[in-house]
């Protein structure tokens, strides 16, 4: 059985039709506006200060570290969260832990939307 195929034509890449010349190319990306980006970075600096306070308290107070670990081992989640949030921090901390580590997440908002998240994971 034989099939007849239409002939193929080679069209060079530099060949343009008048219709293609009228096509206006648009940039697919919006114009760069760094306002929200810099505001997020400034807000993140405050999160870093909060993280520093938490880390400093755990590192320098064996009593505080003991109470956090003891409450976590007893599965007293509210007590662990209250201990962390009792420090002089400006953002609420979300706390999650397991037998190996504790994860402290600090969230911040800018312009009524979540802009920044700082997650600290400490092994114990």
UniProtKB/TrEMBL annotation:
InterPro entries: YuzC. This is Uncharacterized protein. It comes from the Bacteria. Pfam families: YuzC (PF26344). It comes from Salinibacillus kushneri.
């Amino acid at each position: 059985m034989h099939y007849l195929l239409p002939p193929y034509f080679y069209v060079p890449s530099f060949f343009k039709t008048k219709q293609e010349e009228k096509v206006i190319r648009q940039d697919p990306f919006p114009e760069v506006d760094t306002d929200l980006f810099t505001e997020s970075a400034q807000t993140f600096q405050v999160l870093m200060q909060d993280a520093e306070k938490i880390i400093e308290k755990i590192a320098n107070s064996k009593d505080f570290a003991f109470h956090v670990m003891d409450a976590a081992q007893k599965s007293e989640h509210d007590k662990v969260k209250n201990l962390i949030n009792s420090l002089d921090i400006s953002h609420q901390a979300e706390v999650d832990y397991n037998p190996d580590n504790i994860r402290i997440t600090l969230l911040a908002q800018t312009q009524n939307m979540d802009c920044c998240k700082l997650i600290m994971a400490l092994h114990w």
